[in-house]
Specification:
The chain contains 13 helices and 8 strands. The chain has helices at about 20, 25-35, 55, 60-75, 85-100, 105-115, 120-130, 150-155, 160-165, 190, 195-210, 220-230, 240-245, and strands at about 10-15, 40-45, 80-85, 120, 140-145, 170, 215, 240.
Length: about 250
């Protein structure tokens, strides 16, 4: 497990989720600014694609298997931590690749190696925070939304909160039911739109009632869902990925 302070020349391999790659590239850029600001060596494997989660969750195991094989080919020979701005993608690799490859001992051994070396962004940064000298230029009250995969499948909860608390000029205020689902759940929001809408309304009500001027999370699936309602209703709250909050007004 990667722990403690950063070593000179330590290399980070970025695994960027599909949502970030296609719709929110500013989140990937924010991660680059956070890590580049302290001189980390950063590699972005250009032939990376999806982790296979959408196909896996929809029951298309053969398609998910093919995508997961490609992920292994891209990342399993990398030296250094693999960091991803998505708890759901990291959870797919750490918790479900073993199921996909349970009848393939050779690939299963590669999965075990990668699983011990892949980190959700806030998890990695928290372990290294003493060396990162985080200093966001954002000022105001922030509330935090726990994404389901990061919280329930990776056990990530205190790490992003402690990072937010460490940022000078930012006050963390907890919302009611911070750990309640936002209603996205990938295809859940499509298959059960009325249930999803109700859950999203409840979540945004909690955000507004917290008195925060920004909501932060670690997964763009949740934030895309929340941001959609915030935008449609013109609610007075900003929506940030944790990397964007940390890198707020960092040099580009």
């Amino acid at each position: 497990m990667v722990m403690g302070s950063l070593e000179k020349g330590e290399r980070i391999h970025l695994f960027i989720s599909c949502l970030v790659d296609n719709f929110f590239p500013e989140v990937g850029e924010a991660i680059l600014r956070v890590f580049s600001n302290i001189g980390l060596e950063i590699e972005f494997p250009k032939d990376q694609t999806c982790c296979g989660q959408p196909a896996f969750n929809s029951g298309h195991r053969k398609e998910a298997y093919k995508v997961a094989c490609h992920f292994l080919d891209v990342f399993d020979k990398k030296n250094g931590a693999i960091v991803c701005p998505s708890g759901s993608c990291v959870s797919m690799v750490k918790n479900y690749y073993a199921e996909l490859f349970r009848n393939d001992p050779e690939k299963l051994s590669r999965v075990e190696k990668i699983s011990s070396n892949i980190y959700e962004f806030s998890e990695f940064v928290f372990q290294k925070k003493e060396s990162l000298n985080l200093n966001s230029a954002y000022r105001g009250k922030v509330t935090f939304h726990d994404s389901c995969h990061a919280l329930r499948e990776l056990g990530i909860s205190s790490q992003p909160r402690e990072l937010i608390k460490s940022l000078r000029g930012i006050e963390l205020v907890e919302m009611d039911m911070a750990d309640a689902c936002c209603g996205f759940g990938g295809t859940f929001s499509i298959k059960y739109p009325e249930v999803s809408k109700s859950m999203l309304q409840e979540k945004t009500d909690s955000i507004i009632n917290s008195g925060a001027d920004a909501v932060v999370s670690t997964d763009m699936g949740c934030l895309m869902n929340i941001k959609g309602l915030v935008s449609r209703k013109k609610l007075p709250v900003k929506v940030f990925h944790l990397a964007e909050l940390i890198a707020f007004e960092y040099p580009k």
